[in-house]
Amino acid sequence: MTGALTQVPAGWVPLAAVLLLALAALGATVDGALAARAQGRHWGSGLGLPMAETARLLRQRRRRTVAADRPLWLIGTGGLLVVALLMVVVVPLGRWTLSDLPVGVVWFNAMDVVVWALVWLAGWGPNSAHSLVGGYRFLAQALAYELPLMFAITAPAVAAGSLAVGDVVAAQEGLWFAVWMPVAFLVFCGAVLAFSVRAPFSAPAGADLAGGVLADSSGIDRWLLLAGRWALMAAGSAFAVAVFLGGGHGPLLPAWLWSLVKTGALLAVLVWVRRRLPTVRPDRLLPFGWVVVLPLVLLQLLVVAVVVVVGGS
Amino acid sequence: MGLRRRLTAAAVRRATVLVVEVPGWGRTRCAVEREIRDRGWRPAASPADADVLLVCGRPGARLAAAVDLAWEQLPGPRARAEVLTPSGASAALDRALDGLADDDGQRADAAARPGDPAMGIGADEDPDGDDAGSGHETSDEDSDDGDSDDGDSDDGDSDDGDSDDGDSDDGDSGDGDSGDGDSGDSGDGSDDDGAEDDESGEDESGEDDADDSDDSDEMDMDMPMPAGIPLAGGGEARDGLEMDLLHVPLGPVLPAWPPGLVLHCTVQGDVVQEARAEVLPPGPDAEPDGDLVQGSPADRCDRAARILTVAGWADAAAAAARLRDELLDADGPGSSRPALDRLDRRVRRSWTLRRSLRGVPAAAGNPPAGDVHDQLLRHLDQARHPREGGVPTPVATVPLDRLPDLVAGQELAAVRLLVAAADLSPATLVRSGAGLS
Amino acid sequence: MVDDIVFWGLAVVSVASGVAVFRVDSMARATYALAVSFVTVGLVLLLFGLDYLGIVVVLMMVMEMAIMAIYMIMFMGMNPALMPMSMVHGKRTAVTVAGLTFAVLAAGILLVDWPERRGAPAADLTLSLGHAVMGSKMLVMITVSAVLFATIVSALVLALPRGRYDTDGADDGDRASGEAPS
Fold first, then answer.
1. Which of A273, B87, B314, C37 has its CA 20 to 30 A from that of C111?
2. Where are the membrane-spanning stretches (chain A) (predicted)?
């Protein structure tokens, strides 16, 4: 049933990591260019941003705080990149995938729940009020976005009749799921912004908290957090491409290239969105998530289920 | 060697600057912000995020002590500069850049810093009176300021990152103590009663603080505190659960925050239960360079930029700041009119922004009325339609002592928005800060 | 062979982090040690080929522990990150109960006459798991879960009508809602 994909040996994991980092850098570059333009400089002057920031943070020393919970802080800091990599393990690149897990969709979901723990730990570790509030804000935000996210990725799984990402991609030959389940797609994109802590869901790392979970990190710790957020955004985009935007399906170009191009494009759009929108105040998020988004996405799921049942009989 | 030099060159291309505005140096701060933007640098969100500490103006003793604590929290490589006039901004940033790029100097700086994060200023070290007051205050501040709060008051950085030397001991060292201010999450200090006292005393701050430190000392003796940080006291929260009370001062070293303002907050979780406001004055013999003309279009744009920054909308804030700088150049809204209209439309249309700002009470007008969203729109409106004859529309200000009432019961994000938008009476801001007036 | 190594590795980590729950001195560490223990158990289920169950265990347990950490810390009432505290209470009773439980379970494992495998596992384990668990009761399950969920939410709403932020709950950004309490 999952024969459409070729599973490559584990030796390819480093390549996947490099691709993921490259996509993360792409996201940061687009962000830098947009920021430069907003500040009235030529957009080209923002292109070097990821490199400059990396050099700056590599040279910077790490900050220590009094009575910090060092082990937990390190886990939270370093974990984001790891989780992003674990997410892309089940995302096919064209015909290849690192793991054609029969329940890949659930796997992705489990990994995104791990982000809950990591962001909270990153906020808890430094023993500082601002970052701690940031960590708690993330958990509250997670409660707002997680259920909509779960139902959003259930829709393509229902339509494909399988939890394997490969099958979901195969089921989109001809018609992308994003076309006939737009609400689920949009909700998923919002959730990607939310679990990578980007505006409008950036309150946990908000300017009003002096950087929130980032407030007390510097040097390599800060780099890991920032890179982890970009990598999560890239991984989320890659997954969205696989389950909503037809994966490697497309004319002319080889499938793997289609996967990459679509991922890059979606990532750029998400970056643009995040710059267009202000942060939503954290206490306003939960009512919106549950009263508005959750019913909408459930309706979407109902529509998908009805279509599948009627179409299948 | 070549690699190191190249890394240094790349690393300082996009320095981050923690800008501290001393009350009375608003124009200088605007010039600095503009220079930072034009260079493609970035304002820092917290001391941990900063490479450069830039002080606009000459602070008084207490504000200077707060700035020094923030300076201790810069991880390094770090540089520090002072600007007193708008025209000096560029030179000051150049100086800071030279300092940052000087590898040897930075290494020496790192070696000279204590390896373990010492706590700020020990409560027991400063015996009495005024000094104690200021010392203590600052340690709080530091926390707040940005950053970090406190718990760490200290900065300690260890040096690993790049530099060599060192020892990195971790964390907690606690000997020092103090605790008073800080402790991050959990609160500091004083137990409930202490808290109460502290807060209620509205006398001068010196006394107040002294009390406070006593309390915490006692606590210290009662129990062995890790890193010298005492237990938090509990208190009834609004929803009927008991929650820890924490004393978190906000300001004075905090981006997008009124200059010199310190808001001593007692928070439960992320809700501010009560607060005390004061403004730390500039140095007694310093001559302020001046603020933007209150209510002028440029001033309105500056206020809008501050609100938008705290609202997490960096691009719109940048647009407002650019408009402010153009208006300052041009002396009139003529050429920037289309850009102003564009910004106004964008802000008005933003559903997300409305959702965030609506319902945060505005600290403006007498009595205070409306919410921050109204206030933001009003600023943009006034910037677009200045009065004939160039006489600025006056800003309806509120006195500083109204602030605590307004912030009580608000969530931290709302407090930040409210204060960023607050139109405080200028008289209060420049007057020497003897507590709330 | 590889499976054996992985299994023993996971088993050791699982037990060790389980022990750590009682040895560490902070609520946050204890909670996350427990999370690690559960996650390794979930991964062991993956070794059995029970993909869905294993991953759902990981998902649920991480989520649960992330939330539980909040409660653990909240109910301790003192700054738990800083204050070293014992994670053990009622030591004697706890040790007795734990020992007995362990003995019973271990005896069960050793004494039960485990059946031989008959037939081969289903091609799609997730599907057959769904049928086995839900089967004809699917509709009932779906209805019950929605009702349960609605009950929890409405109980909370009734208990705390104004919410933590003192909004009336019906705020769509209209200005009346978030006004400061006077």
1. C37
2. 12-34, 71-93, 105-123, 143-165, 177-197, 230-249, 255-273, 285-310
In a mutational test of the A interface, the residue from B412, B416, B418, B419 whose CB has the highest number of chain A CBs within 10 Å is B412
> What dihedral angle (degrees, nearest 10) is formed by the CA atoms of B7, B10, B12, B14?
-150
Mean pLDDT of chain A: 89
Domain spanning B2-112, CATH class:
alpha beta
CA distance A187 to chain B (A): 16
Q: B269: phi > 0 → left, psi -120 to 50 → alpha, else beta; which?
A: left
Closest CA of chain C from A116, distance in Å: 7
In tens, the pLDDT along C10-37 reads 999 999 999 998 888 788 888 999 999 9
Is residue C73 one of the residues assigned to a domain?
yes
Q: Which residues on B lie below 8 Å from C179 (Cβ)?
A: 359, 361
Report pTM: 0.83
| B 101-120: CB under 8 A from A | 110, 116-117, 119
Chains interfacing with B (3 or more CB pairs < 8 Å): A, C
How close does chain B come to C173, measured CA to CA in Å? 4
**Looking at the partner chain, which of B227, B359, B371 has a beta carbon nearest the beta carbon of C82?**
B227
Same domain, C88 and C138: no
Task: Report the range of poorest mean pLDDT among A8-12, B150-154, C156-160.
Answer: B150-154
**Domain annotation covers residue C16:** yes
Question: Cβ separation of C81 and A114 shorter than 8 Å?
Answer: no
- Considering the domain architecture, whether residues C6 and C66 belong to the same structural domain is answered as yes
Domain count, chain C: 2
Residue ranges per structural domain of chain B: 2-112, 129-157+170-279, 297-430
Residues C3 and C79 in one domain: yes
**Gyration radius from chain B CA atoms:** 22
Q: Is B316 on the interface with A (CB under 8 A)?
A: yes
The confidence band for B230, taking pLDDT boundaries of 50, 70 and 90, is low
CB contacts, 8 Å: B245 with chain A: none
Neighboring chain B residues of C25 at a CB cutoff of 8 Å: none
Q: pLDDT tens digit string along C99-113?
A: 999 999 999 999 998
pLDDT at residue A4, rounded to an integer: 66
Distance CA C16, CA A222 (A): 31
For residues B53 and B93, what is the distance between their CA atoms, to the nearest angstrom? 10
Per the structure, the complete domain to which residue C91 belongs is given by 1-100
pLDDT of residue A62: 85
Please report whether residue C125 resides in a domain.
no
Q: Does B158 touch chain A (CB under 8 A)?
A: yes
CB C93 within 8 A of CB C35: no
User: Residue C179 pLDDT > 90, yes or no?
Assistant: no
- Reference A104, options A151, A153, A44; nearest CA is A153
Quick one: tokens of A1? 């049933």
In a domain, C124, yes or no: no
Query: CB distance from B211 to chain A under 8 Å?
Result: no
**Domain identity same for C82 and C160:** no
> Shortest Cα distance from C63 to chain B (angstroms)?
21
Q: What is the ipTM of this complex?
A: 0.89
Strand order, beta sheet including B79-83: B42-43, B16-21, B52-56, B79-83
What residues in C contact B187, CB-CB < 8 Å? 79
Does the pLDDT at position B18 exceed 80? Answer: yes
